[in-house]
Amino acid sequence: xxxxxxxxxxxxxxxxxxxxxxxxxxxxxxxxxxxxxxxxxxxxxxxxxxxxxxxxxxxxxxxxxxxxxxxxxxxxxxxxxxxxxxxxxxxxxxxxxxxxxxxxxxxxxxxxxxxxxxxxxxxxxxxxxxxxxxxxxxxxxxxxxxxxxxxxxxxxxxxxxxxxxxxxxxxxxxxxxxxxxxxxxxxxxxxxxxxxxxxxxxxxxxxxxxxxxxxxxxxxxxxxxxxxxxxxxxxxxxxxxxxxxxxxxxxxxxxxxxxxxxxxxxxxxxxxxxxxxxxxxxxxxxxxxxxxxxxxxxxxxxxxxxxxxxxxxxxxxxxxxxxxxxxxxxxxxxxxxxxxxxxxxx
Length: 346
What we know:
The protein is α/β, with parallel strands linked by helices. Helix content is about 40%, strand content about 15%. It folds into three domains: about 110 residues, NadA-like (Rossmann fold, 3-Layer(aba) Sandwich), CATH 3.40.50; about 120 residues, NadA-like (Rossmann fold); about 90 residues, 3-Layer(aba) Sandwich (Rossmann fold), CATH 3.40.50.10800. The strands form three sheets. The protein has a five-stranded parallel beta sheet with strand order 6-5-7-9-8, sandwiched between helices. The chain has a four-stranded parallel beta sheet with strand order 2-1-3-4, with helices on both faces. The protein has a four-stranded parallel beta sheet with strand order 11-10-12-13. Helix 7 crosses helix 17. The protein is globular and about 65 Å long. It starts with a helix and ends with a helix.
């Protein structure tokens, strides 16, 4: 009897170019080994339009599969091995609350341009696109925030307050020009939490979401490394708290972190603050040449929901499975938001 790995290999051979398996860097080693294309959110988004495959299987979390469905060609089917693999940060921004918050903020007469991190639902991307806004990733947040600032009077950055704050630091936006919305916009009534006059003098308005994985990194871990291994370098993902980002040697997307490990001198030690599957993979790759270590144990349970077993099951049921879809009412404005990003970053 075939095991899951053998089933995946056989079906890939049988399907040939009609099948493409995409995987985010945070997937486990065994899943990544089965993918045809791997990358961060921006890299994978850029690949969708050029894929000729009829079936695209996305090994990641649900918002990534939704983005793929928005960008897919007519007739192309997007699948995800576990549709419950969501993103807690994306879930912190619900489309109707975002829409209502924007309406309240715009009562001041100022033009508020929404910019959503790709870690958001298709419905939120649709709200953003309908308001003339766009999408960003951790790799292009600086470029896209600059773009958004040039489109209006202020930017509503969502859902990740930390990526927004860290990008604001890069652009030199002062603390006085920033407004962190109260957490009541996530769970309560935005009308009771936000007032249009709060935006006076503000350029960067931050939704109060965050990534529970990257929020785990303690500043004490950085301090301890500085004391005990002063020659070691530390780099982190910009979803980390700004206090962590300001204390380390560099920050950037998963692609940046991979490149930093690659270019680190032989014999050096690099601590990386991001999801641990990627860090372990880099540690194994450079073992004996340089030392790569996790800044802190941090695994994304939702990324871990993709397994060899459910990937194999997905491939076995491609012709009968219901693919990931996005309604036309959401798809059109969401695609506008994504297309704006791809055009600005082309």
